[in-house]
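fold-stage: in
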Amino acid sequence: MKKNEGKIRNIHSHQDRENLKKAEFDSKLYSTMRSNFAKEGKKIAGELENDEKLDYVGDAPDLLNKIVGQLREEGKWDDNAYRQECKKELYDLLPQEDQIALRRGRKLAKIEEKWKKNRKKIMQRAAIIVLVGGVFAAGFGVDASREQIMNIFGKVGSEGQKVFLNKTDEEILDAGEERDRKHIKDKLGINVPKLIYKPEGMEYETYELDDKIQRAKMEYLTKDEKYYYVYMNKKYDILKFQKQEKKFKKVYVKNLCINGIPMGLQYSITAIGSVILQAAVNTLGSVYVAAMTAGSKIFTFTCCPFDALGSTMATYGGQNVGAGKTERLGKGIKAAGIIGIIYSIVAFVLLYFFASYIALLFVAASETEIINLTHQFIVYSALFYIPLTFVNVIRFCIQGMGFSTFAILAGVFEMAARTFAAVMLVPVMGYSGACLANPLAWIAADIFLFPAFMYCKKRLERAGKTA
């Protein structure tokens, strides 16, 4: 293998030598021919200059112009190309250092030209910035002539910018506003900033203080709107964590478990009733199972407002019990009930006419039997949305009031009603019995929840009186 490598290398080296000799020969031939042509040209030029017969021949300065004119007429002459070629020939004749200098000079010329074009705009914007800064600085001095500054600004700003300032320093440093600002600082320790520049026509009206949350509200009025600026003390102690608040306390954990675990059990108990009902529906056949599945999806979507009302009432009940305002609990139930009733009526009308079309989202159009059964399930449920409203409103309100056990018992009543429908109604009435399971569960829960709410409310009222 090594011998072969040596032979290959020898062959390459021989070829390289041949190529090198050929290149050297071409170079020598080119230089020789060039020098011979140059000598021959000088010889011919000398002979022509020394020939006495050519002395009468004069220069023809317009000969080149005539030739160029003829070529222009024939469309064979391009002035731009000629100029570019001349420039290129001159550029190539320059040394490399001069070529670099020429390129840099062209770049600097372009930068200067661009600066000349944009100089007016740049200087104008710089002047605007300086003058606006001067206006703001002048605003803090009562002797400043704002009108003169704005006149200069109007001359420089040619694009129509406008800044509206207060007319006089008396309006900025209004005595009433300054007095109220000082009162807020003395009362809450809040240093309310001065509104030196306001929208045109804005005037100060009044202020409000809230010692409990350390908040001050300044009111300003224009022709069409009222503006409020709210300031809060960042040093308010209640907003800061204390060391004792970071410690683990069993009391809080106990309270959270008392309220949280029953809520979880409530949903699990309700789910047990739904599982029993589904087992009964499975005995009817796949068509009925598919119809109830599609109907349940539509039902879940349309019941979102009831869930929102329930969550709202849980918070509402807890806040009012904590504040000791138990008389507001009944008002909250009434207001939420009215909202739920209105929605229930609207939802029933819409679902009665459009439930079949909504079912097409889950069922093929060719499955007419499943679509009709789905429509039946939705209409039976929507007809009893008003009882469902009070199930969510009252149950979650009781939960927020702190009586979690009653919420669990409401779930037990729902489970019992669904179990009754699965065991007694489905074998007798078939699919119609399954459609009545949810309405029966809601009615059963309401039968328990209304008296339970009255009991819990009276119990809280008695506890408040004794306290």
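fold-stage: in (second)
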Amino acid sequence: MCSFRLFGLQKLNEEDVQKPKVNEVQKPKDEKVQKPKGGKVQKPKEDEVWSTKVTKKDLKNAVEDEFGVKYSKDWKRLLKAPGKLKGEYHIREGVKVIGDNAFYNLNSLTNINIPDSVTNIGNGAFCRCESLNSINIPNSVTNIGNYAFCGCESLTSINIPNSVTNIGSSAFSRCESLTSINIPNSVTSIGQYAFYNCTSLTDVYYDGTETEWKKISIDEYGNGNIYLTNATIHFAASTKIAQNIRTVGWYTDHILYGNLLFSGNTAQRSHRLFRHPGQLLQALFHTLPLFQTGIQFLSDQCL
């Protein structure tokens, strides 16, 4: 038999085995969550969330109202109206944007009501709605897209709210029945061909001074806005006389407005109320060759 002897092997007692101390056990370090600079969580940009661009995926995942108009699932974006839509339509409250070409070529649509939650009217949103004769643009809207109302042949007047800063290219082109438009001094740019072929446009009521009007970037390429620039521009500086009007009327050979009485050669001798400051201006500076013979403060009874 063979026998083996192990040299240098020493039996270790249990107490000789070194155990790590409790306070020496290394725990994994907590990973720090990297925060963006400034400690604020970055959110998607507003224009990314409320884009007017409508994709096939958007339409596939859309929900419909009782008229068949398609909206995003959160009801914040109006995507597409059906071709059968006609007459008057009220856009749902809470909608943020009207998508590109949402109401394109709806020839039987006559009136549209936009809630004051809408901020952006997309490109071509109401293009070629040839029967559209009435539309309200609320104070919440900041942008009117390219071709937004192109070819709306039945529109006769448009009131742009003072929240709008940009009127897109061809926004109102070929609105051949448009005779007047109100433009606020918040507008800084008017795009190429914005009022192209608006052959009936004669009056522009601008809520600002002539100096401010000249600062607006109006794209005049190819005389595309010639009907706008050739129209009579009524500046606020000229109309401020009518801003605080309480009562307007003709009394024999006197004209009464506010608390001022002007006398002179009047063209008519009938009572009449003016519904628009421009009408008063026309009466004061064109129709009636007035000369101011005196200013008299009238009692409240006369007003």
